[in-house]
Design goal:
By secondary structure, the chain is α+β, with helices and mostly antiparallel strands. The protein folds into two domains: about 80 residues, Peptidase S8 propeptide/proteinase inhibitor I9 (Alpha-Beta Plaits, 2-Layer Sandwich), CATH 3.30.70.80; about 180 residues, Rossmann fold (3-Layer(aba) Sandwich), CATH 3.40.50. It has ten helices and 14 strands. A four-stranded antiparallel sheet has the order 2-3-1-4. Strands 11-12-5-14 form a four-stranded antiparallel sheet. The chain has a four-stranded parallel sheet with strand order 7-10-6-13, sandwiched between helices. Strand 2 and strand 3 form a beta hairpin. The N and C termini lie far apart (about 70 Å). The mean pLDDT is about 80. This is Inhibitor I9 domain-containing protein. It comes from Gossypium stocksii. Belongs to the peptidase S8 family. Keywords: Hydrolase, Protease, Serine protease, Signal.
Length: about 300
């Protein structure tokens, strides 16, 4: 065989391989660019002149103005996930990478990043802190009486003895929250689920804020569980269990489903909790190895 012919054959074969591999890479990049994912988008506060002189500005319309025009009519699923009014000036939306890049050129845009998924964490108890039931600052604080604590976690078990409302007064008049349990009481005065993004992708409706793995019940009872006598762990270590503020009211916001606690759900729950009159917020959620600048 002529050597020049052989070299030419190898060159053409390698050139063809590069073209094939290049096309595969480019198609993979195109798929990635066109893939929908949830972004947290921060924008400037709307100018009153943009939305009119109404006292109740339609912030949602301002947020929707940043979405691609074609999404209003062509998509079967809504792109807007949450429109935030209190915690941040911005929204959560399902977007492609290219759509986010186009959004960056719009006036009022600040930043956008794919939502983060947090994990459940843990906490400690009154004994660890040296608090005594009969004297000291714990008793002087009235054990949290009249305070509303909002717990963002995986929901609670409503019939747990830590959440008994025996002897509890009604919620304060300022409370404007909702209850998506079958029944709330004077201890657990509110319960809501935030999983619009997940329900859209899975075709589900609203899920009740019931605890699936015990973590939400643990954190809520640690924050404000009632005094429970003869509590034990599998028959051992019998004693009294109590949360940090046993006479406080609880508002439950379910933002964790399975192991995942999506950032868009957390922001929406924070928004709702502040508007509904919560005094204290409790979140035992986080990421490992993440700079504080990303979570501030």
């Amino acid at each position: 065989m002529d050597m020049s012919y052989f070299i030419c054959f190898i060159f053409l074969f390698n050139f063809h391989s590069l073209i094939v591999r290049g096309s595969k890479f480019s198609s993979a990049e195109e798929i990635e660019k066109n893939k929908l994912q949830t972004y947290i988008v921060r924008v400037e506060q709307p100018d009153i002149g943009v939305l009119g002189q109404s006292d109740n500005l339609d912030v949602g319309s301002w947020h929707k103005s940043f979405l691609p025009l074609h999404t209003a009519s062509s998509d079967t699923q809504p792109r807007m996930v949450y429109s935030y009014k209190t915690v941040i000036s911005g929204f959560a939306a399902r977007l492609t990478e290219e759509e986010v890049q186009a959004m960056r050129t719009k006036k009022g845009f600040i930043s956008a990043h794919p939502q983060r998924i947090l994990r459940k964490q843990t906490t400690h108890n009154p004994r660890f802190l040296g608090l005594q039931q009969e004297l000291g600052i714990w008793k002087e604080s009235n054990f949290g009486k009249g305070v509303i604590i909002g717990v963002l976690d995986g929901g609670v078990l409503l019939d747990h003895p830590s959440f008994s409302d025996e002897g509890m007064p009604p919620p304060p008049e300022k409370w404007k929250g909702k209850c998506e349990f079958t029944a709330c009481n004077n201890k657990i005065i509110g319960g809501r689920s935030f999983n619009i993004d997940g329900n859209m992708t899975k075709g589900k409706g609203v899920e009740p804020p019931n605890d699936e793995d015990g973590h939400g019940t643990h954190t809520a009872s640690t924050a404000a569980g009632r005094f429970v006598n003869y509590a034990d762990v599998l028959g051992n270590a019998k004693g009294m269990a109590a949360g940090m503020a046993p006479l406080a009211h609880l508002a439950i916001y379910k933002v964790c489903f399975g192991e995942d606690c999506a950032e868009s759900n957390i922001l929406a729950a924070l928004d709702a909790a502040i508007e509904e009159g919560v005094d204290v917020l409790s979140l035992s959620l986080g990421e490992e190895g993440v700079p504080f600048s990303r979570t501030a």
